[in-house]
Amino acid sequence: MNGQELFGYASALVVGLVIGLAGGGGSILTIPIFVYIFSIPPILATTYSLFVVGSTSLVGSINHIWKKQVDLNVTAAFALPSFISVYLSRRFLVPALPDPLFQFERFQLSKSDAILYFFAIVMVIAARAMIRSDRPEQGEAADGRPRYGSLALDGLAVGLLTGTIGAGGGFLIVPMLVLMAGLPIHRAVATSVLIIAVNSFVGFLGDIHHTGLNWNFLLPFTGLSIIGIFAGMYLARFVAPDRLKKGFGWFVLVVALYMISREVM
């Protein structure tokens, strides 16, 4: 094992640490790690990301359920449509995308490059949301009564995003749960972690029918990430959430710009 691979495995601890601290954001790190450190093809990297983030988030969600911070009714309303969308997009949409995705004279855009560009754009949007630290206090559900229809429609949209680029979408889920379900921010974060966990596993199940997996690599990486989440959940008691999100947002923005510049070059 060379130095670059050792750095990659050490980064797995950081993935878990971030999920434990921020309640999401793991896929924002896993896909660049897999693609640029381990040289894993982008499509396969999204599959690996779904498994790692799903497994790590599941550990975090068990902790939140134990503390009774998860709203299971809201989870079901948001997650069931999202699960369907995730599975269908991973099982049928992503494999059906043509390669190259776009071609004009000598220029062509491969499916792998398109997914990386799309992922980088999502990272920029996520970074902007985290840097601004906008936390809605109330919205459609200001009366505390969840808008289940709106939650279901948004669940479908987030599922499509998760299925296409392998990202859990926590930066989208949390504001939706505050605005449309009337959840306090700490319960929205806890509920989001459970949705991300199951969403990721459903997307992963949609891939195993047509993807060969290197379990000798995937399981140790996931194990290190799970170790990281325990450290993150412990440190979360001492770190101001807003300061953490803003700092992580700047980091995500730098990584996104690096990805875009590298792909363009």
From TrEMBL:
Residue ranges crossing the lipid bilayer per the database entry: 12-37, 43-62, 74-94, 114-131, 151-179, 185-205, 217-236, 248-264
UniProt topology in membrane: Multi-pass membrane protein
Keyword Transmembrane helix: yes
Keywords: Cell membrane, Membrane, Transmembrane, Transmembrane helix
Chief localisation class: membrane
A Pfam match: TauE
Keyword Membrane annotated: yes
InterPro entries: TM_pro_TauE-like, TSUP/Inactive_protease-like
Gene Ontology terms: cellular component: plasma membrane
Subcellular location field: Cell membrane; Membrane
Protein name, entry field: Probable membrane transporter protein
Taxonomy of the source species: Bacteria, Pseudomonadati, Bacteroidota, Cytophagia, Cytophagales
